[in-house]
User: Fold ATP-binding protein from Paraburkholderia caribensis.
Amino acid sequence: MAADYDRIRQVGRRLCTELATQDTEGARLLKQVLGRKGVPLRAAGYSEALPVDNKSRLPLLEVHETPDVPIFLDELGRSAFEAFLADATHFDKLVAQGIASRLALMLSGPPGTGKTLLAGHIAAHLGRKFYVVRLDSVISSLLGDTAKNIRSIFDFVAGKNAVLFLDELDAIAKMRDDRNELGELKRVVNTVIQGIDSLEPSAIVIAATNHAQMLDTAIWRRFPYKISFGAPEYDLRQALWFHFLGDDPAYEVASRMLALLSEGLNGADIQQCALAARRLAAHKDEHVDMWGLACSLMHRQAGSFASGTVALNDKRRLIETLAQEHRVAQAEIARFLGVTRQAISPYLKPADNGN
Ligand SMILES: Nc1ncnc2c1ncn2[C@@H]1O[C@H](COP(=O)(O)OP(=O)(O)OP(=O)(O)O)[C@@H](O)[C@H]1O
Ligand SMILES: [Mg+2]
Assistant:
């Protein structure tokens, strides 16, 4: 951790000797790494001293790595995302023409819709370091320290050409409820505003909030770019299901059916349901049990599947929902559930069999 090359080589060589008897390939790889010349240890990135809260001594911000989940957005969100990236990439040109705005982006919307994820993707796309501030942890119990914490965050990122992400920005507005000291709230809001104003124009600030209406208009004005998130629509849900079921063409029909059944769920819910179902399947070395997954969605028991048999009533309700409410053809329902069309029709009343 202290970038002490000699010690690392010394310990590494000892490890090599010990490994050699049990894992020759591992020992060879380790030796190869140790033998490499002129490779600087990346100590600077790891030992970077982050500003801390005076009382708790906890860091006020964290460095996050590139996200490993792709971001799925609706058309409006995608075009706003791309416009922001384009403006950030060609910022100098916009400045030269006098049409640049501060690169500050506000993400608002309900939990679990991908706000934090999107911010991570922006940093990754632009190849910038991604500093994440959880504002609720910055709010100190010591009077006066909150503003001080916020100031040290902005001082820290100044000139770093990074992406500063202020998560849960509404935590500041909530101080209004928790404390009677309105003076301090005002001071904190002003410190955020001053912080944003103090950064170089090409700095990128992204903020996220679940309660857009709680934010001060003076803060809103600092963010010329805005993306608002909602519960995902059908197309988006379908893309999310397909991805989280493993990008497997075998689950193409399933993704469409599950998207019909999951109105109101957000991206995080869909991820959890899909992964839970895949884990269950993995233990049994089987494909995902669509009866179980679909029925648990109908019951809105996201993530908790009754493994084993699905009750007859639930099967009936599932098939009725798809056929009657969503007007899905019986052949399609059969493909989704991995049964024959003949197995589907008995569940539907004779009058509805023609679908
Ligand atoms: N639109 C999406 N595209 C891809 N994955 C998503 C999307 N929405 C949610 N997810 C999945 O859910 C996880 C949680 O999303 P994220 O943390 O970005 O939500 P959030 O909007 O920041 O929620 P909160 O307001 O609670 O912080 C993501 O890491 C991702 O795996
Ligand atoms: Mg978040």
Notes: The chain has a mean pLDDT of 88.
